[in-house]
Give the backbone structure.
Amino acid sequence: MADTAAMAWRQYRLERKLFWRNPSAAFFNFLLPLLFLAFFGAILHGNQHDLNVIVPGIAGMSVMSTTFTALAFNMTFLREQGVLKRIRGTPMPGISYLAGIAGNAITNTALQIAIITVAGRLFFGTGWPRDWGELLLFVAAGVVCFASLGVAFSHAIPNFDSAPAYVNAVFLPVIFISGVFYDAARAPGFIKGIAQALPLKHLIDGLSGAMVKGTSIATNVSALGVIAAWAVLGVALAVRGFSWEQRRS
């Protein structure tokens, strides 16, 4: 166990170096949500109600982008380029390698949430989170949910060249339907119905309760339940469909 943990730590450190040496990965998985936050924050300056919507909305989108989007891309690339197959043939335990990749995504999520929290306090008038425990709980639940769904979704992507089309076909509609950039309560009924079935809407609700509204975990327990249900589905599909081998030549 000690050797497994040590190798996972080394792989994690390598993943962090590779991440910052890849400008496109750093931009799309880390900086893009922050640019959205600055852009909409500037447009909505002075409208505190909408700022209270945007900050937790961008926080929820950040969780999805750094886990679902990043892992769907990365796992497809690693599988189709034969990296997973080669890792499987080395002395490194597979769990150590995968833990390093997961740890990199979790670190990016934590950094983004921290930056958004500080920006909300300093520039957008939302103040510090009303309930830090609820914030940590929903971020952790969102990470597990979207990370597992990202790995599961990677199984459906045939090759890395098509990965952007597949991922954006899910990511973009979900963030617009789930109320990242607007108050979902004002959306048409059929949009609200679709959003209620998706985990991102419930993650945003939980983050909004923790960061802005000050509602308790009990108030958002149903949102946590929906996220947990999607997480169970994601874990089951991720494990069932996982392969160390290339799917297509």
